[in-house]
Design brief:
The complex is a heterodimer of chains A (about 575) and B (about 110). With about 575 residues, chain A is mainly α. Chain A is about 70% helix and about 0% strand. The termini of chain A are far apart. Chain B has one domain: Arc Repressor Mutant, subunit A (Orthogonal Bundle). Chain B has 4 helices and 3 strands; from the N terminus they run H-E-H-H-E-E-H. The chains are: A mainly alpha (about 575), B mainly alpha (about 110). The interface between A and B is large, with 52 and 40 residues.
Chain lengths: ~575, ~110
């Protein structure tokens, strides 16, 4: 089909349905109006039918444009049923078809494109057998960095919170004549509780930084690909990896991210497994116990706890997918691997600041309020001879015998675990209040020296940075001790770490952190499961997870005793 | 030419978005339809200009998504697209994801 104002060699044929209408419109424009020289009537007709009607007013003037527009509307109405995808789409499609034919005729493609460097790396990191061990090794390195680099800062913040900040607050409270109970609430409740949690900010920053690094480099997408085969063993597919790995940060977004999965069964199964991934709020508990009891092996213990969570998820996933949530339906997983790239600092900053900000917000609201409530419960009735006789102590003591077989059947441990049901950060916040109140005498703060304190804080920061740098280099050269001796790690730790050594043995401490790593994460996670799948499944998740935590912690403790460990 | 009978490739792309009910990347579509990436990118651009599709990530649509940092669509090279919001394809809520609409209108 040709016409006088186009070169037939380059003219696109829009097909027997559209072409006559283009021709009618072209004729109408050509007969009735005078167009600028370079504008062809056919081109204008096609553009107008594609929806670019403002061109009419531009070339024909508003009045004349109305005449053509009326014709365009009548064409669109006529073709509505014959071109259901829309005239613009049909016209564009014909153009692409024509371009495709030209490219096909004129382009010669190489038979097999050369393999890129990224493809060569992918052959290793996505290898069916090597992929998962490589991932586990990478995760070990991350946790090793977290423990090694954050520990000096952790000790520094601990010293700042329990030293100058507590002293300044104490002096301020004295100057306004605050009562004893208000001083207790602020110093032993709010500052000790929130401070006990805030000391872990450096560790979390390091963790979030490295997770961000793995995400932004494109490596985590490879892990999802590698995990596909592994997850299909659990009746899931690689897409479930995304909510599962989000669970390492916080289980709540992980639960909501199950919406990305296709079937309800997959979503539910994944949501039941997400809480087994150790969230960042559990990390402080691991670090405190790791530093107190396991010295240089702390990073292996922490890595082991993360691996334990994954192993439990695998076992339960296998069990659930063959019992409660059985299905013969298989869903496919199609994913495209992004290119490797150098992580961008701006992305890393966003990643770290968002997640750390969330932790800080939590510390300033929930943890603060809960720490004050715990302090009140620890001091009611007011004349109780000891913390154990307080309301908190008695309620915790009621639960304690249940935890006896796991080796930590004390009111202090069970009380900390109870508050940990609200949020995992509260385990440490509560322990700080209980153990430090029992073991550490608060220094008198009648006189303060702000300038000297600030100088000490600055010196402490510089010292911590130097030690963190040295440890980073040590961590980067496994097996080679560049700085410090073998015993250096044993000297570290927060005030809480030292107090815990009087209340736990290494074996009961291990059983305790195993329990913490597996029991239900927090009420917010249960709320998310309830919102997505209903109260019955939330209850099932809480009961089954806590039961599993008790069982595994008891096994660890009893087997350890059988092996003669203490 | 059988313009009325043959389903156009652009219409097929839109149908694929409707069927999948999730964002798709240009690479994914190129692989689905056996076309060159650059060709598909051009087609997607046409569909964005025509108001049928929208590009993700450029206007904060994914800000609230919990899976954003691990999204397997968003970090890909090449552009990421989803259908323009309409009934049955709502924008993500606070904890929503672009996939959540897929369940709402399923029987």
């Amino acid at each position: 089909m040709t016409n006088s104002d186009s070169n037939p060699d380059f003219q696109v044929d829009y097909g027997p349905v559209i072409e006559p209408e283009i021709e009618n419109l072209r004729a109408l424009i050509k007969e009735r109006f005078v167009l600028p020289n370079q504008i062809k009537a056919r081109w204008l007709a096609v553009k107008v039918l594609e929806g670019e009607t403002d061109l009419l007013a531009q070339f024909l003037g508003v009045e004349d444009a109305r005449v053509v527009l009326a014709q365009v509307h009548s064409i669109q109405k006529r073709l509505e049923k014959r071109v259901p995808e829309g005239l613009d789409i049909a016209i564009a499609d014909r153009r692409y078809e024509r371009v495709g034919r030209i490219v096909e005729q004129s382009l010669t493609r190489p038979k097999e494109p050369a393999r890129t460097r990224a493809e060569r790396v992918d052959r290793v990191v996505t290898h069916p057998w090597l992929g998962i061990p490589i991932f586990m090794m990478v995760m070990y390195l991350v946790f090793s960095f977290v423990v090694n680099v954050s520990e000096p800062y952790l000790e520094w913040i601990d010293a700042v919170v329990s030293g100058p900040i507590t002293n300044w607050a104490g002096a301020l409270l004295s100057s306004i004549g605050a009562s004893t109970w208000l001083r207790g609430l602020i110093l032993d409740g709010a500052i000790a509780g929130v401070g006990g949690v805030l000391v872990f900010i450096p560790g979390l920053v390091v963790l979030f930084f490295f997770i961000g690094l793995l995400e932004d480099s494109g490596y985590l997408a490879r892990v999802a690909f590698v995990m596909n085969r592994f997850l299909s063993f659990l009746g899931l597919n690689g897409k479930s990896f995304v909510p599962l790995i989000l669970g390492f940060g916080c289980a709540v977004p992980g639960i909501y991210a199950t919406r990305t999965l296709e079937s309800r069964r997959e979503r539910l199964l994944t949501a039941l497994l997400v809480p087994f991934m150790s969230c960042s709020a559990r990390l402080p508990v691991y670090v405190v116990f790791g530093m107190a009891f396991f010295g240089r092996s702390a990073d292996w213990i922490i890595w082991g706890l993360y691996a334990l969570g994954i192993a439990m998820a695998v076992l339960l996933g296998f069990f659930y997918s063959r019992t409660l949530l059985r299905s013969s339906e298989e869903t496919s997983f199609l994913m495209e691997l992004p290119s490797y790239r150098l992580p961008r600092l701006s992305n890393l900053w966003i990643h770290v600041s968002l997640r750390t900000g969330e932790f800080l917000r939590n510390a300033g609201t929930l943890i603060l309020a809960a720490s004050m409530v715990v302090w009140l419960l620890l001091n009611v009735p007011p004349k109780a001879p000891g913390l154990e006789q307080s309301v908190f102590g008695q309620v915790s003591g009621f639960v304690a015998p249940v935890l006896e077989p796991a080796g930590f059947g004390t009111w202090e441990a069970s009380g900390s675990l109870l508050t940990g049901m609200v949020a995992k950060e509260l385990v440490i916040a509560t322990m700080t209040q209980i153990y430090l109140d029992e073991n550490v005498e608060t220094e008198a703060e009648s006189e303060i020296y702000p300038l000297q304190d600030l100088i000490d804080i600055g010196k402490g920061l510089i010292g911590a940075t130097i030690r963190a740098g040295a440890r980073l280099l040590d961590a980067l050269t496994p097996g080679v001790q560049l700085f410090g001796g073998e015993g250096e790690r044993e000297e570290g730790g927060t005030a809480l770490s030292y107090s815990l050594q009087n209340s736990f043995t290494p074996l009961s401490a291990l059983a305790f952190i195993v329990f913490v790593s597996l029991y239900t994460p927090c009420v917010a996670t249960l709320g998310a499961i309830r919102a997505e799948f209903g109260g019955r499944w939330a209850l099932f998740s809480a009961v089954s997870q806590t039961g599993m935590a008790w069982l595994v912690a008891t096994l660890v403790f009893q087997l350890g005793r059988l092996l003669g460990l203490t | 030419m059988s313009g009325a009978q043959k389903i156009s490739i652009l219409a097929q792309i839109l149908a694929e978005f409707d069927r999948e009910r999730r964002p798709l990347s240009s690479r994914e579509l190129a692989s689905m339809f056996g076309k060159d990436l650059t060709v598909v990118e051009g087609m997607l651009e046409t569909l964005v200009r025509s108001g049928r599709l929208m590009e993700l990530g450029s206007d904060g649509l994914c800000e609230q998504c919990p899976a954003r940092s691990l999204c397997i669509v968003l970090p890909l090279e090449g552009c990421r697209f989803c259908l323009v919001p309409h009934e049955g394809w709502e924008l993500p809520d606070e904890y929503g994801t672009c996939w959540e609409a897929r369940d709402r209108d399923r029987p």
